[in-house]
Structures are given as C-alpha cells and as structure tokens.
Amino acid sequence: MAKITFVRRTGQQETVDAEMGTSVMEAALDNDIDEIVAECGGSMSCATCHVYVDDKDLGRLAPPSDTEIAMLEGAAAPVKPSSRLSCQLTMTAGLDGITVFLPEEQY
Amino acid sequence: MTQAQVVIVGAGHAGFTAAASLRRNGYAGAIALITAESCLPYQRPPLSKGYLDGLREDRLSFRPEHFYERKGIELLRAYRVEEIDRTAKAVVPASGESLRYDHLILATGSTPQAARLPGNDLDGVFRLHRRADADALRERLVTAREVVIVGGGFIGLEFAAHARGRGKNVTIVEAADRLMARAVTPVMSEFFLREHVSAGSRVLLDTPVARLVGGDGSRVQGVELHDGSLVKADLVVVGVGVRANTGLAERAGLAVNDGVLVDRCLRTSDPDIFAIGDCASYPYRNRRARHECVENAVGQAHAVAGTLTSGESQPYRRTPVFWSDQADLKLQIVGDFSGSDRTEVISDPAGRSFSVNCYRDGALIAVESVNRPSDHVAARKLVDRSGCSSPAQAEGS
C-alpha cells in the first residue's frame, strides 16, 4: 500500500491507501473523491481525471506521454506545468506519500 | 426540496452517470438505479480491449459497492423491469414490488444483433456485450487457434487486433465493402484495412455470412459464407451492430422509431420520462441520431441530471466523441461524418499518424484522428455544433 493525499479546492485534505500498481485515478474513485470523474475509465480518451501534482512530488514521476500531454490540453480547468491525468499515475513504492490537488472542474 | 423519486432503468455508462451526476449536483430526493445483471454496474468499452488483457474485474466496475450506500443510491440488481405503468407512475418487475417514480430515466442501452445469425448459439460463438460474455471469451481464447470475427466494426476489429497480438489465426468477415462503414470515412476504412492485413489478419469484404457451422457436441467448427465456402473456426466473435432496446418504451406507448424518440432535452413523448444513451434517438443536425458511445451516454446523463436538479430544462448539445484502440492505433473521432460533402486528409496515413477533416456546406462536422491526439483535442473545440442547437447555445455549452 502507498499513501496518496488529495487536496480539495476548499483546502480540505484526504489521505487514502492505494494498492501498488493501481492508478491515482482508481484510488480516487474507490475513496469517493468526487472531483475525479474519469469518464473514459482510464484509457486516455478524455481529460476528466485531471489533477495538479504537488511541486515536491513532480521529480518522482515518470514524464507524461505525448498522448497524455495532448489530452491534457482538453482539460476543463487551467493546465499548469504540474498538470497530469491521474489515470496515468501508477502507484509504486517511490510514489508513497504523493500529494495531488484537485481542480475546480473536469468538464 | 420535497422527497422526489428518480428511477433509472439500466446501469451502463448512461444510467450510472445519471445517478452519480444527480448526487454530485446536490439532488436530495431518492434515487433508484436498476440493473438486470447481478454484478455491480461496470464499463463496457474495456470488454473488447483491456479486459481481455487481464484488467482486474474490480477495475471494470464504475465504483465499489460502498459508493452506492454512501451516496444514497438504491442499487437494485438482478431486477428486470417488465412494464412501465404510466398511470400509476411505477416500473413493474417480473416479480416483486413495483417501484414508484416521479421521474423515470430510460437508459436501457442496446443489444447485439448477433441473434439473427443461424448457429449463433453454438459453443464457441461469442458476442462482446456483457461482462459474462467477456469472461467466457477470455477463457476460451487461451486454447483457440482459428479465430473468425463476423463484422468489421469497432468491437470486431478491437478484438481482432487483440487475438492477432496473441498469435491466433484471425479472419475478419464483413458484409459491407469496407471496414467500420457506419462509423468512419472511406479513407479511414482503407487505412485500417491495410493495417489489419499487414498485421497478419485475413480480411474478407463484401462477404455476407450464411451461417455458423457446428460439429460434435455443437461446438463451432466454421463459418459458412454466402457462396457456400467454409472458413475454419474454433472461436467466433460476432459483432454485427446493435439494436436499441426499446421494448419497454414501446409497450408503455412511448414514441419509438429505431430508438426511443426524445426532444432536445431528452424527454420522451411522456414529459416525466427521459431516455438517454444508446437507446435514445435525439435531434442532431436536423435529423435524428442514436450515437452509441460513452461520450454521448455521459453527456446525456449530465443534461438530464441538470434538468432534474435545477428544475429548468437543459438541452443536450455535446458533440459525440468516439474512440477505438486497435493494437497500437488510437482512433479518435469528434462528430459524425455522415452527410459530409468534402473530406481533407491532414498529414500522411503512411506515417500512421493523420487526421481526416469532414465538412458539410463548408462547416467542419467531424474529425477522425489516428495517433494524433492533439488534432483530436483541437477538434473538440472546432467541430461545428450548430446543427444540434443554435450557434449561440452551442457557444454556451
């Protein structure tokens, strides 16, 4: 298990346990993080699981693929350098304790 | 708000999203979500793709069981609605209690047309519609060698790519003169034909199937073509299109014509009953369309949830988006190419990364992209939506 902290727009934080190998998106859906919509179920065909990764954690992530970068352009909330599709963030021991901020809207 | 009751029949992408969206919007009344299946509501697109590769069963479900409890969504499983009693405003199951509604949402989806093919019930013949189909197919695929796919649409081709990738001998049999004929332009059909052939699949176009042929123990042995010839098979997947599930609506006296007829706000001919997703025939570009895709199901669910939460009718005005993953090819489509009078190919299909822009009367009505997600994302903003609502409304969506 690895910990993920979701930070809501209100500043409220929620830390959940995620199984290794599952995605940040899946952890959000399993734990009622309603800000993650995930319309396409994680196949990189929508951009409704958009999150902002905490700056302290950016260096720990594998870089986004070209497809992910392109799909992020379609996100409803502003895209920042820390923007990622949470379906593409797979939990590993190296990501334990990651913090992600939830955007205002997903569509 | 008074305790109102929304009953949703069908728990695919449309039905599930309607329930979740109502709660997300702050809807306070009772919500019942009905599924005829006994498992938790799940996504269907992975059934012909990732699920076959071993996607875990619990990852197929939209949400874990506790989601429904926490959100106050009454999930009725293995509940088959037989009739709608419009006078009593209730759905009536084959056995058990009727369920009263103030607003009813029909999200009954569609059913594969496979049943029309003689021999479709032979052992080793599959369709890819429900999770149980995929479970059985997944098991059989381990030992199968000769795989025949009847129907060269999205599902058939996705499965073909998967089976070929696992070293199976694959034959695709399509009655039309090109692949994915209903969904894409001829340029795109041609590209995918070349790709599947060069990956080692055999593709027979203009080839209607007469029947599926069984051997001992009623196990499928082959596919008989219209000219009497036989293609050997020990596993057959039939994907020849779907029919909207309209029986319930028809019996209730609602207007139906290849889909439950709805207005721009997705209301059926009974103002207390909505229809969304695959089963709904809605006004699109001065005609009626049923769009069988997740984007449409989800968008229509949001629109109805918005109407019921706000009390103000919210027209549906998204442009449909389709996607299909076949081997390493990601096909993404915005809009509906039918009715286009001019197409323009961007970049070179030989490079396996290109787009096809489709125009009608000078307006961009659809964009098909292969391995060009940036074109696709741009197209979502560019494709003209003026056909399905006034331009001003489209701007505001």
Walk me through the structure.
The complex is a heterodimer of chains A (107) and B (397). Chain A has 107 residues and is α+β, with helices and mostly antiparallel strands. Helices cover 17% and strands 21% of the residues of chain A. Chain A contains 3 helices and 5 strands, in the order ββαβααββ. Chain A has a 5-stranded mixed β-sheet. Chain A starts with a strand and ends in a 6-residue tail after the last strand. Chain B is of the alpha/beta class and 397 residues long. In chain B, helix 1 (13-24) runs parallel beside helix 8. The longest helix of chain B is centred in the last third of the chain and has 17 residues, at 294-310. The radius of gyration of chain B is 22 Å and the shape is globular. At the A-B interface, helix 1 and helix 3 of A face helix 3, helix 8, strand 22 and helix 9 of B.
Summarize the structure.
The complex is a heterodimer of chains A (107) and B (397). Chain A is of the alpha+beta class and 107 residues long. Chain A is built from three helices and five strands.
Quickly list its features.
heterodimer; A: 107 residues; alpha+beta; five-stranded mixed sheet; 3 helices; 17% helix; B: 397 residues; alpha/beta; five-stranded parallel sheet; 10 helices; 29% strand
How helix-rich are the residues of chain B, as a percent range? Answer: 10-25%
User: For the residues shown, what is the average pLDDT of chain A?
Assistant: 94
Strand order of the largest sheet of chain A: 2-1-5-3-4
**Largest sheet entry of chain B:** 5 strands, parallel
Percent of residues in helices of chain A: 10-25%
Proportion of residues in β-strands of chain A: 15-25%
Overall radius of gyration of chain B: 22 Å
Low-confidence stretches of chain B: 387-397
* Total DSSP helices of chain B: 10
Low-pLDDT runs of 5+ residues of chain A are none
Q: For the residues shown, what is the average pLDDT of chain B?
A: 92
* N- and C-termini, Cα separation of chain A: 31 Å
The total beta strand count of chain B reads 26
Report the biggest beta sheet of chain A as strand number plus sense, adding barrel if it closes: 5 strands, mixed
Report, as a whole number of angstroms, the end-to-end distance of chain B.
27 Å
Q: Taking Cα atoms only, what radius of gyration of chain A do you get, to the nearest Å?
A: 12 Å
Query: Helical element count of chain A?
Result: 3
Largest interface: A-B, 21 and 29 residues
- Which sequence of strands runs across the widest sheet of chain B? 3-2-1-7-19
Multimeric organization: heterodimer
Q: Outline of chain B, from the CA principal axes? A: globular
